[in-house]
Amino acid sequence: MNTLEALIHNNRQWAKSIEENHPGFFNKLVQQQNPDYLWIGCSDSRVPANEIVGLLPGELFVHRNVANVVVNTDLNCLSVLQYAVEVLQVEHIIVCGHYGCGGVKSALSNQKNGLIDNWLRNIKDVYNQYEVQFKAIKDEQQRIDLLCELNVMEQVANVCHTTIVQDAWDRGQNLDVHGWIYSIQNGLIKDLDVSVNNKDGLPAIYRTAQSHSDN
Question: Which end of the chain is flanked by fewer CB atoms within 10 Å, N or C?
């Protein structure tokens, strides 16, 4: 059995197991998706979103990219965000990074990696913002792990700065944005305690004015 055939075989076994444990699961799933959560995570293959939080297909809407970055010009990410908030009406947006992130590690170096260097510039900006903290840390792994955490916090802020999320809050929609980080070493998630559920705590420059139609 070649590698691709093995994947097809695994799929058959997985589908059989799901149906045995949850009779009628796929018939129900095909009708609609109704997740409460949007997960914005890293593309790293070691961080499978549904599995590490114990959720089944249909329970977690997912967007992944290298180093879980949210950029205000990334139409892919913004489209997922808008669909999740406005159509699916998710109640929680979780930005989840992970320790030892290869993208973050690359951003800390000055090596050339090609096109991705333009993407990783966003993480270099986070480093530059907190450079004083990094100067006091000599251990390279500690520096990487700190930047992984700070990057998550920055992306939480970026999510909150979008018109999509702020419009939802203006409508009175229940929506919380959270920042988590995952450890590949032990499989555990750490809440970074940066949750936001309204515009009050945002810097004034990032707050959008509420439209007259909403008043």
Answer: C
